[in-house]
Amino acid sequence: MKTLIRNAALGLAMVLATGLAHAKDVQLLNVSYDPTREFYADVNQTFAAQWKQQTGEALTIRASHGGSGKQARAVIDGLEADVVTLALAADIDAIATNGKLLPADWQKRLPHNSAPYTSTIVFLVRKGNPKQIRDWGDLVKPGIGIITPNPKTSGGARWNYLAAWAWASQEYRDGDKVVDYLTRLFKNVPVLDTGARGATTTFVERGIGDVLLAWENEALLTLGDADTREKFEIVVPSLSIKAEPPVAWVDKNVDRHGTRKVAEAYLRFLYTPEGQRLAAKHGYRPAEPDKVPAAELQRFPNVKQVTIDSAFGGWKKAQAEHFADGGFFDKIYRPR
Amino acid sequence: MPSTRTRRSSVPALAGSALVCALIAAPVHAQSKAPLTVEELARRLQAIEQRLGTAPAAGEATDANGLADLDQRLRVIERKLDLQAEEAEARVASTPVVSLSAAKGLSVKSPPPGDVELKFRGLAQADGRFYIDDDAFPQNDTFLWRRAQLTIEGSWGPLLAFRLTPELAGDSVTLLDAWADLRFNPAATLRIGKTKAPVGLERLQASNATEAIELGFPSELAPGRDIGVQLQGEVAKGTVSYVAGVYNGTVDGRDAATTNPDNNFEFAGRVFVEPWKNAANALSGLGFGIAGSQGDKEGTGNNFLPRYRTPGQVQFFNYRSAVIADGEQTRWSPQAYYYRNAFGALAEYISSEQQVRLPTTGANAKIENTAWQLLAGYVLTGEDAGYRGVARPNHPFTVGSAGWGAWELVARYGELEIDEDAFPVFADPNAVAQRAKSWGVGVNWYLTGNFKLVANYTQTDFDGGAAAGADREDEKAFFTRAQFSF
User: Fold this and answer.
1) CATH number of the domain that A68 lies in?
2) How far apart are alpha carbons B92 and A170 in whole angstroms?
3) What average pLDDT does this structure show over B102-110?
4) Which residue, of B72, B93, B114, is where some domain finishes?
5) Residue B87 pLDDT
6) Which residues of B touch A201 (CB under 8 A)?
């Protein structure tokens, strides 16, 4: 019997050794929203090199991009994200609440409510602004084609919607009029893409519509190309919203993968001078601008912004009132 | 300008182009009645928008600039078709794939990467058994369900695979295969549960693939299904396969009991080599190997000492009832097969040595029983033969057409010899035979890839086994089988 146990233990050890022989490289999966492709490609390359230098480990960071709401649903349904870098806190809240994959107070774990960079909503119009679109009120004029993604699937679209709502609330100071304004606005939307990048494609490449409601970083990225700069320009509205795309490591997944340490380091890297500089480079407003040379911040104009907390009582409330089934958006928008 | 853009599907682009063509190339009869105008195009575009469900709301203002407005509306249609195609693509990517086919049965596969899969397999064998000239040892001619199995197998992620096969053909439901595999890599898979012990070559063949209706003599000495843990895998580009495991232990020719009956375990292993497996030459179908088992058995009765049967399923040997297994049992078995086009042959030898004791006299001995067989088959219709069975018929049988399925002829010769030391102390020479020699021929008619009819004739003669040292009467058995499997 002793011989049996010894042999069995030896065999098991061999099997485990065989399995573990493949565990040399470290992999991270970053599940992100639509317009962050270029930013995180840059971050991933820089951080992987830094990690290799610090630890000697070869780090491969895979990225998945799509509409923020869809991405959150995918993580809840089993996409094994080590970190999520989504468009809004409500989507990560959903992962915490519905997926139980990270604690409810995840937003307190990193500085600035876990938002290492911010953005805002601006208008991208065709060069020369032929339809004379200056502010939110111009969007509901007859014959204006507005391109914005679907708030049900896109985080950026929800920021667009809330920015419009915030402006209308200040403008009309009457709930019915605000709803009427949003209804007329969405009547001018001929196509609802599922994500911000798709909406940019609709407006820029397919030539549909007169104005794109866009993340500032997406608009700046679009104008980064000389040819495109000839065809489009940015209009900054009188009021916008401070979009705070948050980041978090997914506790259950990193513990299962053994990647907690590298996942946390990856997200903390975003707060370093190098991470903040990369954010600015890709059109995101650094959460800690003092870490970035002033010259690199000049392209961000001063915009009067409301916050989700001040104007809507936080994401939980905004989500329930506006975007949940039966919320304001369902009343405002009827698919054609 | 963002470098990554939504991929433009060719399907909507084509659809959009088709719409343009449809708009510009007006029907002949329409052209003959009215000239082509922007208004006419707008009217037809609106009709298409309504059919696609993309029409602007009633009373919604449109640009008065005629062609520019048409252009925008057409672009919107094109984009919506793009989005519909993307949505359909995404739906496909997140929808499990259910497939049902005669060749592969029913399976359900998770969306990409498709590493969760359930497969449902079935095997039904309806046999007829007829004994000829069986006056001295009469046997019942009978029809029976030999096997009725429904297998659920599959994978659950890249690491875990499993199989569950209940046998429904007996008087009660039994569990045949019930195992889980941990697939570390092709060279190392850990199998836990109940599975065929890795010793007998023909015994290890799938039940729906054996060329004869019943197994030959060597399988009577090899262990059946056993419960335990085994490490298995393939190395050297699949040319060498191995299995090594520890099991509860089972008696020759039978499946293991539900639990270990004697607190002793049995080790078993097998190495099988197919050196030219990956080559395209005359030896690519040659495989040979060695298998064996070793362990102690202590006890009396059917769970410890074997009863041997002929290929006609008639028992011709058992130990005296007072004999007990009392120590080491060792089996070893050199084995080989060769398949080349329509020809297939399988050969194996096995030795099973067991320490036995007769408590009433204190006599003890190591009894070594041996068996061997040579089995060969040829597919007359030219389909490839193989260890996993004959390939699907080139021309399945179809009523009223030229297809007659595949036809295979099979022949077998085998012997089983009981150790002389077993007689007369441990076995009664007037009741059980000391040696059996059997030959048989058969024909397999594969009507389709899923259904075959089989007929076997087997004749076995014996040394001893009858009163006063006489030879037991020859056994002449005619078996038939109808098999459905998927």
Assistant:
1) 3.40.190.10
2) 45
3) 89
4) B93
5) 85
6) 5-6
